[in-house]
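DM from R.C. (forwarded with permission)

"hey, sorry to bug you on a friday — could you get me a structure for this? deadline for the figure draft is monday and I only need the backbone to look sensible"
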Amino acid sequence: MKINKSTVIAKSIAVCALLALGTSTFATQTWDLQGGCGASTTNVSLGSSEACSGAAAGVTLNGFSNGTETSDSPGATNNATNFAAAAIYNWGSSAGLGVVASNESSGATGPHAIDNGYGIDALMISFGTAKVDLSSLTIGWNGNDNGTTSNNNGSTSGGGAVNYNDSDLSVFVWTGAGAPPVTSNSPNTLVASGWALVGNYADVGTMSNNTTGISSSIYSSYWLISAYSTAYGTGTGLDQGNDAFKLMTVAGNTCTGTVTNGSCGSGGGHSNVPEPGSMALMGAAMMGFVATRRRKQKAA
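My reply, with the result:
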């Protein structure tokens, strides 16, 4: 049987194209929130909202807390109280970003981390129009490494003093439509409003480089990093102390294609971008096809 060379070459090109399009190339990006969100000097108030730049370009931070108490016993939290806007503070490159509620002191001895001593503190990370799947986060100062006792008025004694000696945290991703509600929710109602719990992570301050991996396959513009609350579930190592930490960086992958129901591209995962080697292979095949056609036409 006579085989048409053009048909063979066309099939080869199709195979090359499939190889090129089936190969994904992507890099995990790290957003340095401490370095790119506000001044890097110690004890700088960023207000309750901060547009970041540099190593965190495109990111906006919003601080929240449901703390309302003027005194507190260790471990006491109110999971039914709605969140309110809270100040974000940049505590410098050796510490990270913390959240200070209206009932807390921002002084050097105050509870100025993301903590759960006088209510649950949380930091929302917005990536604008970008859709991101976070893969890890790194904290700086934390209760495991730097256990301390603090009162909400900045003192280290009294009936409201809290011993911060742990660094459990929780990660949520927004799966709802439009901008996510936070202030209309309490820790008890976050999930019902469209926030999905990605996971609770115990003792992050004891992990290598104070970094924990985040297991998620959801791409979203909004992520919430919160001090742990019993409203978020239970697990090994959780709720064994008063949690406090300051956030340094987050890392993840950005979808360059279309996100549908939280998945990147029609098959989910990262959008496919042909690698240079695959593109070169396909180009060479196409050039060979053109050259063969020209020789055939001359011989005719």
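R.C.: lifesaver. The chain has one domain: 30-264.
me: no worries. The longest strand covers residues 242-254.
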